[in-house]
Structure formats: structure tokens, C-alpha cells
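Homework-ish question, so no full write-ups if that breaks the rules, but can someone show me the predicted structure for this set?
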Amino acid sequence: MATTPKRPPLSPRAVVLITLIVGVALPGALFALILVLSAATKPLVVEALIRKFAEVDPATWPYTTLVSWGSVVVLALILLTFGAVISGMTVWWEMRVSARMQSRIGYNRAGAAGFFQWIADAVKLLFKEDLIPAEADRMLFRVAPYFVMTGFALTFVALPFGESLIAADLNVGIFYLVSVTALVVVGILLAGWSSNSKWALFGGMRSAAQVVSYEIPAGLATMVPILMAGTLSMQGIVRAQGAWPWQWFVFTNPAATVAFAVFFIAQLAEGNRTPFDLPEAESELVAGYLSEYSGFRFAIYFLVEFGNLWVMGAIAATLFLGGWQIPGVGPEVYAAAKGAGALPAPGWWGLQALSMVVMVVKTLVVLNLIVWVRWTLPRIRIDQMMTLCWKYLVPVAFVTFVFTLLWQVLVARQPALSTISGWVMFAGFVVVTLLFARQTRANIAAAGDHVDMTNW
Amino acid sequence: MEKLILRRVDRNNEEMILNFGPQHPSTHGVINFIVETDGEVLRKAVPDVGYLHRSIEKIGESTGYHGFMPYTDRIDYVAAMFPNEGYAMVVERLCGIQVPKRALYLRAISTELCRIASHLVSIGTMTMDIGAFTPMIHGIRERETINDLIEALCGARLTYNYHRIGGVAFDLPEGWRDKTLAFLDHFDKFLVEFDRLISFNEIYIKRLANVAVIPGPMAVDYGLSGPNLRGSGVDFDLRKAMPYGVYPEFEFDVPVGKGMFGQVGDCFDRYICRTREMGESSKIVRQALDLIQQAPEGDIVAPKVARNLKVEAGEALSRVESARGEMAFYLVADGTNRAWRVRTRTGSFTAMGIIEAISPGLMVADLVALIASLDVVAPEIDR
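A: Not a homework solution, just the prediction itself:
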């Protein structure tokens, strides 16, 4: 009996269209809301808005506090949503990239190029049974994901998105970020202990050892841009850098290049990414601290792990890669565009959006680099992980720290030094990139292969 | 066994007993390792085998001689040509059947392709156990082509049932030779690419070099064979040492562990032996595809092998260089149409024996590397 093939409910063209619309509109809307709200939650702007739209004096109006608090709450919710959405989209991107690296097709079912797979996965995890092992420490087992989630969500408070686009430009911004990200390890350790599983315990202990160790080189490497900028504020660090690549901190100080490498490695380790994915090493510990988790609790760990990629990228871009600086647009341009009134002029919003684009692009480049690393390298062993940290990264980070102290003294006397270093290091970077590209081409040719972008 | 360990462990110290398996991502099948650990360091790892025991030897005693052939596939489903060949050879030896030249070439071609496929799985899963996922998929991708080729040859992709007592089941299909040669050209390049991708990756070398060193004499003592033995620097390959079939006609090298990045007999030596062996197998297949053209077409199975084969009383032993080491079939016949005893010796089973001796002092991650480097396959251990 011939069965007629079931007609898909939507034509392929419609699927592509819907995917494109959602894929652009969802993050686009979130970015737009962040753009508007992070500028609009500043007290002065809130008051100006109240004056303009409610036509009352905000000083005497009884609901002023309510409105300003409300806008902050909405911004917080938007940032949380952004974290979740970007985490899901990172999963999709990572799966597509890894599929290409591995001659696989990858996600291709839900939506065009499987773009909606992350939504489907999240919904599936929501409906899964929330299983707690019989002998587990129930309270700690339930609490652990919240620590992880909190540590992740709090980072967005001090994460810059653009020139004036930051929830709170704390004057201890980077210090705050380092401390709240450390909260994640508390959750992981609790998960490892409370699961009452040997694999989870292994994972938790490994994670504790790893994250706590790598905090030190990460912190020391962070000191380099802090010294160069003379401030802990995230926006202050970005403002201390120029917009062009040779004006970024990573190039203007030879030690900062090394510090960036140390920082990047330490970030990989803190984010439990390959080659430092020992805490959940699948082939050794089954799933490490995640072994006993299921359903939504698992989803939270999953979300945080991938959402952290964005955080890692954004912090690296801020500290070393010039953040949101637009070439040719200095602080005076922003001031001029803002106008004299309490409410900024439209041109200013455009500049803000542009700075956001710059920041997002830089973040995504770093994020993609982390994805490449994950699908290329094997995992190191725990003793090697410790050796790398304490014998190599910590001393190197110290050297860059001390070198930067001297460098800053020198630069104060001879400002041209930093410009020369910027040019030389940037030229070196370009040469290395070109050599890398050439080697890649040669390798592809040697394998009798060719680059095929048609099946993306 | 578990009770033994439990009694010995002092509950007041910090040792922990871990059941590493039977369901574990890196035990390569249902094998259990009872592991005593002190934190990350192993005190001891004792393999607990038998979860996949299917009485294949006993089945060999209750089915006819021809009928047992499909069961031999299941002894080693990753490289099913070797038990096929080993079993066919032992019956031929007992009955004095002369196998046609063309069938011997076909056996060499099929087994060497199968060796490549098996090693691809082995080194692929090994890289995955070390934590790199991409090389494994690349290996599986190449294996897929071999599966296609073997499917064209015998109709099956996993349990081939291709060899017959007295020859093989099918001759080369049309165009198969060119396809295979094209694949081998591609494959030789792939091996170079694979080396660049993972073999000489610094982290990979650091994970494997000087880990779980098995010195040559110890490997001999524990009866290791195949790449595991050669990884320890012992140059013993049945295809060279006791040639069977048409192997004397081929020119190929036997890669031996040289301690490229550490001591001879470490995990890296075993790994690199396998990658180099794939290149040698590729050479053998090329030569066999050349030589087979001289053998008359269609002459692939010895004439007059009775359907209901009755073997005169006697005993015989065949030894085949399988992908996982020496695979020996020992057969005792009693004059009926059933074997009186079929005994199989497999490389994986002997490899399991050395784990307990090697494991003290390793780390948990090293145990995974050790199991992967020994290339054990659960059904081959238990049969």
C-alpha cells in the first residue's frame, strides 16, 4: 500500500523566514530593551521622563520611587532573560560549529538550521521529572542550582553593553565580577556533595580545586588592565583604551598580551570548558557534579555553563580588547550628541546602539574562539591542571603584573612607548593571523579537501 | 571479589571504592572495574568481567560447523572478519581443505580493511576518552566508507559472515577495486591529517606519554598480544612470525613502540602503533588488490566442502593476528557434524589481566587512558 508522505505543515521557505525573523527579532528586542532601559533607569533620566510624560514634579510626586524601582526590576528581568536566551543561542551556535568541524550535519530539525532546537530542549527539560536521589541531602541538592544561577545572573549587573549601557557602573566593577563568578563554584561543590554519588563528589572536588586555583592567575592577569587604566570600574577600563586595535590594552603593553593569554586560559578553567572540563569529564566521571541532576535543575546548570561563555567574552573584550569603543568617536562626541537637555537626543541613542554592536561583535568573536578550542583540544589531567596553574600561570601572571608596574612608570615618562608597543604588537598579531590562515589553507590542501560553505 | 576488597579496606582511612562500570561511558562495553581510590589516585583497579558472556564457545559445540560461522561474528563485533577467518582456518586445517588463492587474497583484503576500521574505532574512542571529541567523529567518518565497501562486498556492515570454510562467500563486485583504491588514496592523506589533528597535540602527548608503562618482558609474561604487545617494543606479529594465508607475499612493516615521547610501552606507544598499523594495512590491501588480478575470477571457495560437514576426530589450532591481538581458535572434533570443543583465545581477555598489575598509582583519568589504549571490546573478553 502506497502511503502518501505526510506534508509538512509549513513550506521550507516559510520555515526559513520564521527562523530568520525570530532569530533576529528575539535578541534584537532584548538588546533594544537593554539599550533603552539601562539608559532610562538612571535617576536623572527617570526624573526627566516623569517630568515629561506624567507632567508632575518628580520631587513631590508620590510614585517616583515606585517608578524608578519598577524600571530597575524590569531591567533586571530583561537582563536575566537575555542571559537565558543568549545561552540557548550559544548552544545552537556551538552545536552548528562543532558539527561543521566534525563533518556532521548537526541541529537541523526544529526551524531552519535547527535554530529552535534550544527552545525545544529547554521545554523538554522543563517537563522532565525532577529527580532527587533517595540518599541525597535534599536541601543542599535543591539549593545548589540557585547558587550557580545567582553567580551567573549577578554578573550582568556590571557587564557593559555600550557607552552608557550598563546596569550599574560600579567603581569596583571588575572586582565585583570576580567575586560573584566565584559563587558558581559554591553551587557546584554543593551539587557534588549533596548528590551522594561518588562521581558527583569527584566532580565537585575537582571543580573546587580547579576554580579556586585558577582564580589566582585570573585575578593577577586582571590586575594588568586595572593598573593600566587606574580604575576598577568596567566603563573606566574601556574608556582608558582606544578604539583602534593598536590602542587596545592587549597590544599597548607587551605584558598585557601575555596577561590576556593567561586570563583566557584561566577563564576557560573557571568556566569548566575543555581542556579544563575535568569537573564533568564525561569519559571519566560520567557527568561529574551533574550526574544526579535532571529536569529543570539540570537545565539551570546547562544554561549557566553556556551563558558563561557570553560573560567570559564580554569581560575579555572589556579588559583587553577595547570594549565598546567605536573608532573615531571620543567622549566629546557622545557629549555633543547627548545635547543639553536631561533627555538624550536621538543621535546619542544611535551612537549607543553602535557601541553596543561593537561590544557584541567582540564578545561573539571571543565566544567563538572558546567554542573552537573546546572542539579541538583534549582534556588535561588533574595534576597537569594544577601544575599548569601553580607552576606556570601564577608565576607568569606575577611577572606580567610586575612588568606592568614598571611599564606604567616608563609610559608616564615616555608616552610614545605605549603607541610603539601598540603598533609593534598589532603588526605581530596580523602576521601571526596571516601565517595561521596560510597554514590552515596548506593543511586543507594536503588533506585533499576543500572549504565548502554551501551546506551551512 | 567485591567482598574481598571491602574487607581489606580500612573504613577509617580516606580510601573509597568505586564501581567503574558496568554502565560507564569509557569502559567500552559492559565491563566493571572495581576501583580502590585515594582521592584521584588509584590504589588498585580490578576488572570484573562476565557481563556480556553469551556462551559462544558452547554454541560452537551445539551447531554445525558451517552454522557456527555467523556466531563467530559476535565474538568481536568491531572487527568481525578476524573470528570469521580464524574459525574458517581451524576447520580447514582439521579437514585438510585447500583454500583457493583468490579466496586467500579476498580474506587478506577483507581482514585488513576490517583492521583499519577497527583501529579507527579504537583510536577514535581513545581520543574521546582523553576528552577530544572531534577526532573520534573523523575516525568514524572514514570507517563509514569502509563499512560501505564491505557492505558492497558481503552485504553486511557489522557482522559480516563473509568467510566460509574453504574460502569466502562472494567475489569482488564490479568496480569495487577502483573504489577501494580511491578510498585508500584518501585514507593515506587522512592519516597525516589525523596525526596533525590529535596525535602530536601537546596535551594529548602529555596525557599518554609515560602513563601505564608496560615493559616488554611484563607484556610477554601477561600474554598480551597484537598492538598492545608491539607497543611494549616486542616485535611479534603473527602475519610475520607465523605467516598464514598469503601474508608471505606482502611487503609491510610491523610498527613497534619505540617510546616516542616517554618510556617504551606507555599508552602513547600503543596508540601510535595502531595509527601506524593502519598505514601498513593500507599497503597490504593495495598489494592484495594488485595480486588478486592474477588469480582466476570466481574461484573463491574450495570445491566439495560438504554441507553437513563431518570432521574426523582430531584437534587443531589456528592463530590469526586480529586487530585486538592474537585470536586463536582451538577445535576438537569427534567425527560427528558437531565440534566436541571450541575454544577461543582473544586479545582483549588477556589485556584485561594486566590492568590489576599496572593500575596502582595511576590516576582516575589514567585508568581511562589505559583501558582505551588496551583497546578492549567487551564481547571479545566474555564471548
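Now go work out the reasoning yourself. Hint: The interface with chain B takes residues 98, 101-104, 198, 202, 205-206, 274-275, 277-278, 281-286, 375-384, 443, 446-448 of chain A (CB under 8 Å).
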